Amino acid sequence: MEVSFLLILLAVLAFILVIILGRYISLWFQALVSGTPISLLNIIGMSLRKIPPRIIVNAHINAYKAGLKQFNVSDLETHYLAGGRVLDVVAALIAAEKANIPLDWKRATAIDLAGRDILDAVKTSVNPKVIDCPDRSRGDYITGVAKDGVQLKCRARVTVRTNIAQLVGGATEETIIARVGEGIIGAIGASENHLLVLENPQLISKRVLDKGLDAQTAFEILSIDIADIAIGENIGAKLRADKAESDKRIAQAKAEERRAMAVAAEQENSAKVKDMEAKYIEAQAAVPQAMAEALKAGKVGFMDYLRMDNLQADTKMRKELSGGGATA
Q1: Do residues 90 and 139 both lie within one domain?
Q2: Rounded mean pLDDT, 68-77
Q3: How much is the average pLDDT of 282-310?
Q4: Within 10 Å of residue 51's Cβ, how many Cβ atoms?
Q5: Which one has a higher pLDDT value, 2 or 168?
Q6: CB atoms within 10 A of CB 178
Q7: R_g over Cα of the chain
């Protein structure tokens, strides 16, 4: 009875062990029939090291079938533990191998650990992509002003492919868009007039490409095409009108200043005239007093005084007759 119980217990334990090891055995068998055997203990050890065995086994099989022998199972495990995307790296290496793009395991893992999508980068190297400059979905334009003062609004489409050698540390799409925008603005600004740009938009593309804007970036610019160009405001005319208005205000301010100075001078002259009139009246008032003192002192005779009085009366009458003076 005890023997039967032990046999049943061993059978149950064996069944449980087979179920537990089943998935590892299937992976071991899959690697074996694929021509790249991996020991069963190594597959079990991956699970103990918190590494998904299926990812490593599939990646190793794919690499072996593609003829890649730059790395082994240990390298795949190390890259996974470092936080890398093993399957994407292997797929990128396979794609690069088929497209004759120079890419080795060390560089591929470095790019992947840097946070770049290595598989997308290889795909872009094979099949270049187009970047809208600026983003068309937001309805933005690149705005420049020609030498004649007319504003031009542009949209460009930049065709790029990935520069694998500069992918680590190289600038991203945002830098490409910013540099292309800067180049377009400079090209428009260097044009003598806006009509020349409208007639030959390819001049913008040529000038921008000649600047080597893809230096130190993760992309190589293949072409720049002006997709849309429109006339904006006449900035030059607006500036000239603003300057004319400013000059007008300055002239008005200076004229007002001169008028104020003239009014002040007139008022000052009027004050001087009033002062002279006051002095004249004061002098006239002193004449009778002086005459009286002269008569009293005997310096002037009475007949002299009468003759002078008659002369003044005669002069006053003549002035009144001729309208030259007002009556007293």
Answers
A1: no
A2: 87
A3: 73
A4: 18
A5: 168
A6: 14
A7: 52
Q: Which structural domain range is residue 318 located in?
A: 298-328
Say whether both 7 and 107 belong to one domain.
yes
Residue indicated by tokens 């991956």 = 46
88-127 pLDDT, tens per residue? Answer: 999 999 988 888 888 888 889 888 888 888 888 888 888 8
Do residue 173 and residue 109 come from a single domain? no
Q: What is the mean pLDDT of residues 40-55?
A: 86
Report the amino acid identity of residue 14. A
Q: Give the count of domains, the chain.
A: 3
Give the pLDDT of residue 160: 87
Query: Which pair of tokens denotes residue 189?
Result: 């600004």
Helix segments in the chain, DSSP class H: 2-33, 40-48, 53-65, 73-81, 86-98, 105-113, 118-126, 173-189, 194-199, 202-210, 235-297, 302-322
**Is 158 inside any structural domain?**
yes
* φ and ψ of 144, to 5 deg: -135, 165
Q: Within 10 Å of residue 307's Cβ, how many Cβ atoms?
A: 11
